Amino acid sequence: MERLKVLITVKTYPIPSAKYDELVCTAGVREDGSFVRLYPVNFRDLPFSQQYKKYQWIKVEATKHKGRDARKESFRPDSDTIQLLGEPVSAARNWTERAQYVLAKKSASMEELYDQQKSDRTSLGIFKPKKIHDLICRKDAGDWKPSFKAALAQARLWEERSVSKEPPRKVPYKFQYVFECDDPRCNGRHRMMIEDWELGALYWKLVDKGASSEEAAKSVREKFLGDLCAVDRDTHFFVGTILAHPTTWVVIGVYWPKLWKSGSSSRHEPLLF
Predict the structure, then answer these.
(1) Strand locations in the chain (E)
(2) Which of 119, 127, 143, 260 has its CA 20 to 30 A from that of 171?
(3) Which CATH class is domain 2-84?
């Protein structure tokens, strides 16, 4: 068991799990900028006093994952030990304090991350794409697979979990960034799925306010492409691999301060949903 101090940078959208009830993968960085993955975390069941926010430091006791998950950054947290350390790191001075931790070990490109994965099992990272071409939005199933929900219900029954608790709502769309890297090996058209909790939260917030499914999906695209990837933003992607498909990388978060201008005292507010 290790005592970790982690600056939370991303949470993936929760999915139901027969084994863990539901899964949320949390990623962050230590004080030296090295990446940490914490899972499983049943975030919605945490007491409010332990529900961490983006760019908030936490301490938690965790053990290194073994066996199936050989990724070097993966830890299994003891959720009861989560301790929040003050307020989230400020976005003042164009995210300067955040940058000293978040960008300390940034990679130059996805190609570089692929190389690191081969050499030392790297499975988390951050990099700045050279150009973001598009954000593709496609219809997806509107609910989890029946077999998936049945397994969850059976596990809850046998293990005396809350059978009345609804699984997280499934977003009926898939969103995918299309981009290129500043690397001569880049083929110019990376396509990478987005698994950011904030994307799903924004979608359901809009639907709950009365937007149709199509309107909500369009607004999400406008936000995550038009705002987060605007020409005046220094956009970086947080990326990570999928355990079941270890060579597949997904975007798990976006880092998007304004482009720095010499002499500027600009500041940018964090994304709030």
Answers:
(1) 2-11, 15-17, 21-23, 26-29, 35-38, 57-64, 74-77, 83-84, 124-127, 131-139, 173-180, 190-193, 236-242, 245-255
(2) 127
(3) mainly beta
